[in-house]
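Sample intake sheet
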Amino acid sequence: MKMETTMAMRSFIFVLLFLAAASSASADSSSKDQCHSGDKAALLAIKAALGNPYHFASWTPDNPCCDWYDVDCDAATGRVVGLAVFQDANLTGTIPDAIAGLVHLQNLRLHHLPGISGPIPPAIAKLSNLSFLTISWTGVSGHVPSFLGALTRLNQLDLSFNALTGAVPASLATLPSLYSIDISRNLLTGSLPPLLFSKLNNKAQEAYLRLSHNNLTGSVPAEFLAVAFAQVDLSRNAFAGDASSLFGRAKPVQQMDLSRNAFSFNLSTVELPEQLISLDLSHNAIYGGIPAQVVNLTNLQFFNVSYNRLCGAVPTGGNMASFDASSYQHNRCLCGTPLADPCK
C-alpha cells in the first residue's frame, strides 16, 4: 500500500512539472507570437524604404515578425532585440531612418552589403539599448558620426571596410562600456582621441582597437599606458613618435601590429607583453636592439621587426628558430643567425 502511495505521489509531481513546463513554453511562444506592433511597423517601414527587396520576402504582415528572416526577438517579451542583414549585393539604398523605431534593439549588424551607401543616419543614436553595432563591408561614407557617443550601452563598434572619412570622434571616449573599436579599411584622418577607453566602468576590461589601412596621423596618446589592450592594430597609417606606452611585461596584449608607420623609439628599453602571440613592428624607424626577453615568449607565433634601424645580435633560443631572415632584414646593423651577417 505504501509503495502504491509513493508511486502515485511521484506520478502527481511529474504531471505538475510537465504542466509547469508546458505552461512556460506556451507563455514564451505566446510572447514571441505577439510580435509588438511597433516593432513590426518599424521593420515593414525599413523594408519599404529599401524598395521591398526579395531579401525581406519573409517580412509579411500575416506572420509574426519574430519569425522573420534576419530578426531576433527576446523570448520573454517578444520585442525585437537583434537585426542582422548580411551578404546581399542586390540590396541597395541608404540605412533607413525607420530603424529608430526598433527601440529595444541590442544588436544591429549590417555586413557585406556593398549597395548600401550614404552616411550613417542620426536615427542610429536613438537606439539607446544598442550593445553591438556593425556596419561593415558596405558603401557607407561620410564621417564617423559624433552622435555615436549617445549610445551609452555600446560594447562593440565595427565600422570596418567602408568609405568613412574624417577623424575618430572624441565622443567615443565618453562611452563607459565600449571596449572594442574596429574602423579599419576606411579613409580616416587626424589623430587619436587621447582618452579613448578611459571611461570604461571596468578598468580591468581588455580593449581591442583596430584602425589599420587609414590615413591617421599623430602619436600614440600617453594615456594609452593605462589601457589593458588585448589587441591593437594601427598598421598602414601615418603615425609617428613613441609607441612604447603600448608595451609592458604585464600587459594582456596578444596581438600588436604597428607596421608601416613612422614610429620611432628605442626598442631596447621596452618590456614585451608576456602573452604576445603576434608582433609586427616592420617598416618604421624603430632603433636600439631586440630585447633578449623575446626568447621567453612561449606563445609567440609571428615576429617581424624588418625595415627599421635596429642594431645588435638577434636573440637565440626559445622558439626564435621558427623566424627566418625576413623577420629581421633591412635594419641598420642587426647580426647573427638567421641573418647572413655574423656578429663581430
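Comment: The first strand starts at residue 71 and ends at 73. The longest helix spans residues 2-34.
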